[in-house]
Amino acid sequence: MEKTIDESIQGQALVLDQKKENKRKLFIESYGCQMNFSDSEIVASILEKEGFNTTQNLEDADLVLVNTCSIREKAEQTVRKRLEKYNAVKKNNPKMKVGVLGCMAERLKSKFLEEEKIVDLVVGPDAYKDLPNLIEEVEAGRNAVNVILSKEETYGDISPVRLQDNGVSAFVSITRGCDNMCTFCVVPFTRGRERSRDPQSIMKEIDDLVSKNYKEVTLLGQNVDSYLWYGGGLKRDFKHASEFQKATATNFAKLLDMVAIKYPKLRLRFTTSNPQDMTMEVIDIMAKHRNICKYIHLPIQSGSDRILKAMNRLHTRQEYFDLIDNIKSRIPDCAISQDIITGFPTETEEDHKDTLSLMEYVQYDYGFMFAYSERPGTLAAKKMEDDIPLDVKKRRLAEIIELQRKHSEFRHNSFIGQTVEVLIEKSSKKSSEHWSGRTTQNTVVVFPKDQYKIGDFAMVKIDGCTSATLLGNAVGYSDNN
Ligand code: 5AD
Ligand code: SF4
């Protein structure tokens, strides 16, 4: 239908208004976990309404925001190095303002302003809605800090601006914070107490993604299995909820089931699971739905019961084996990955061997392994000496990484000869003639592009592999298209 003149004029005025408003440039970058990357998309959305456009060019920026991680000392050092870089850039662009977001902001609070002169703005993970006010302060020449943690899921009503967008897969956060208090972990201090997001707002966000043709959604939380919606509030306060709230509460299994039923063609993933909170109900729901990916990231941290106890992990080695056995018996093709920490205080060679033997039992598909890094304020830092020498930590870490490499290779090899469904995400980094996508088990597959496009589900016959990637050729479309 033709537009009337009036409509055209209004349209032009709108474009001009937007141009006038959108004149400030935001450079935002993220470190750490997927939650941080997802939060940066919320921040971009909040600031878009304030007239900020994102830029990929640091030198151009009016406002630079860095979303930070505190999980290990090295993560914090990386951010400090970036601040040095901003400092150099600011010499040619003196009006540029710099803000730190995320976990380091929460941990260091206003100390950040004293330690790093380049920083104008410090904002914790629950305070992003206050950014417009805080930026006004900064523009008036004052430093600004907001590190107040919340009791509610804070951003349910905000539709994120997709920053790392391939148009195919997106993250949707469902819980925030963590109540588990593992003794090594800074997260409960930087992300606050555990709270869940209203299922309706989760569904609305997924609806929007599906309508834009996204094919895969990852439900995100520090501890997704403890998702519990009973009308709002902290997870730990559920005991005071009314009988009605208890009867109508939605747990993680119910949420997964709801999403899987409503969107049968959408691939669903979730992360991170905590062994002590993962239920049989969740495993059964995974087994029931083809569209829930057969992959669980299930951190173990240590294979020694004594160390698990010292870490305040509330399960034993045997209970973890039982969980693995249950997963494998219900979902035989399920991939499992781990996080492991080596050199936790007091860890002996015996404890280390327990970790190696646990890995032999599970034969993980992937792994993320780290040397223990003492974090200020945690229970381990307060109560235990960081007594394992660095060379011992590093040697144990190397042994664990080597064993994991063997297991990953073994798992990858088992796919050779099989035909697997792959969701195509992007061009392969190594060759523009090849696509890169993932199987339901989260394994990356690279294959010639032929007639296929990004967002297609292709059936790929696997005929080889490298250490981290399966190689093959597409033999047709999957019936999920
Ligand atoms: N030192 C080393 N690794 C840690 N992790 C968490 N805290 C520490 C720490 N203090 C690891 C755990 C966790 C992952 C996200 O980071 O393995 O599961
Ligand atoms: Fe890092 Fe943990 Fe914060 Fe994520 S929640 S950014 S992993 S400290």
From TrEMBL:
<comment type="function">
    <text>Catalyzes the methylthiolation of N6-(dimethylallyl)adenosine (i(6)A), leading to the formation of 2-methylthio-N6-(dimethylallyl)adenosine (ms(2)i(6)A) at position 37 in tRNAs that read codons beginning with uridine.</text>
</comment>
<feature type="domain" description="MTTase N-terminal">
    <location>
        <begin position="24"/>
        <end position="140"/>
    </location>
</feature>
<dbReference type="InterPro" id="IPR005839">
    <property type="entry name" value="Methylthiotransferase"/>
</dbReference>
<feature type="binding site">
    <location>
        <position position="182"/>
    </location>
    <ligand>
        <name>[4Fe-4S] cluster 2</name>
    </ligand>
</feature>
<dbReference type="InterPro" id="IPR038135">
    <property type="entry name" value="Methylthiotransferase_N_sf"/>
</dbReference>
<keyword id="KW-0949">S-adenosyl-L-methionine</keyword>
<dbReference type="Pfam" id="PF01938">
    <property type="entry name" value="TRAM"/>
</dbReference>
<dbReference type="InterPro" id="IPR002792">
    <property type="entry name" value="TRAM_dom"/>
</dbReference>
<dbReference type="InterPro" id="IPR007197">
    <property type="entry name" value="rSAM"/>
</dbReference>
<keyword id="KW-0411">Iron-sulfur</keyword>
<keyword id="KW-0004">4Fe-4S</keyword>
<keyword id="KW-0963">Cytoplasm</keyword>
<dbReference type="InterPro" id="IPR023404">
    <property type="entry name" value="rSAM_horseshoe"/>
</dbReference>
<feature type="binding site">
    <location>
        <position position="178"/>
    </location>
    <ligand>
        <name>[4Fe-4S] cluster 2</name>
    </ligand>
</feature>
<dbReference type="InterPro" id="IPR013848">
    <property type="entry name" value="Methylthiotransferase_N"/>
</dbReference>
<feature type="domain" description="Radical SAM core">
    <location>
        <begin position="164"/>
        <end position="411"/>
    </location>
</feature>
<feature type="domain" description="TRAM">
    <location>
        <begin position="413"/>
        <end position="476"/>
    </location>
</feature>
<comment type="subunit">
    <text>Monomer.</text>
</comment>
<dbReference type="InterPro" id="IPR020612">
    <property type="entry name" value="Methylthiotransferase_CS"/>
</dbReference>
<keyword id="KW-0819">tRNA processing</keyword>
<protein>
    <recommendedName>
        <fullName>tRNA-2-methylthio-N(6)-dimethylallyladenosine synthase</fullName>
        <ecNumber>2.8.4.3</ecNumber>
    </recommendedName>
</protein>
<dbReference type="InterPro" id="IPR058240">
    <property type="entry name" value="rSAM_sf"/>
</dbReference>
<keyword id="KW-0479">Metal-binding</keyword>
<dbReference type="InterPro" id="IPR006638">
    <property type="entry name" value="Elp3/MiaA/NifB-like_rSAM"/>
</dbReference>
<feature type="binding site">
    <location>
        <position position="33"/>
    </location>
    <ligand>
        <name>[4Fe-4S] cluster 1</name>
    </ligand>
</feature>
<dbReference type="GO" id="GO:0035597">
    <property type="term" value="F:tRNA-2-methylthio-N(6)-dimethylallyladenosine(37) synthase activity"/>
</dbReference>
<dbReference type="InterPro" id="IPR006463">
    <property type="entry name" value="MiaB_methiolase"/>
</dbReference>
<feature type="binding site">
    <location>
        <position position="103"/>
    </location>
    <ligand>
        <name>[4Fe-4S] cluster 1</name>
    </ligand>
</feature>
<dbReference type="Pfam" id="PF04055">
    <property type="entry name" value="Radical_SAM"/>
</dbReference>
<comment type="similarity">
    <text>Belongs to the methylthiotransferase family. MiaB subfamily.</text>
</comment>
<keyword id="KW-0408">Iron</keyword>
<feature type="binding site">
    <location>
        <position position="185"/>
    </location>
    <ligand>
        <name>[4Fe-4S] cluster 2</name>
    </ligand>
</feature>
<keyword id="KW-0808">Transferase</keyword>
<dbReference type="Pfam" id="PF00919">
    <property type="entry name" value="UPF0004"/>
</dbReference>
<feature type="binding site">
    <location>
        <position position="69"/>
    </location>
    <ligand>
        <name>[4Fe-4S] cluster 1</name>
    </ligand>
</feature>
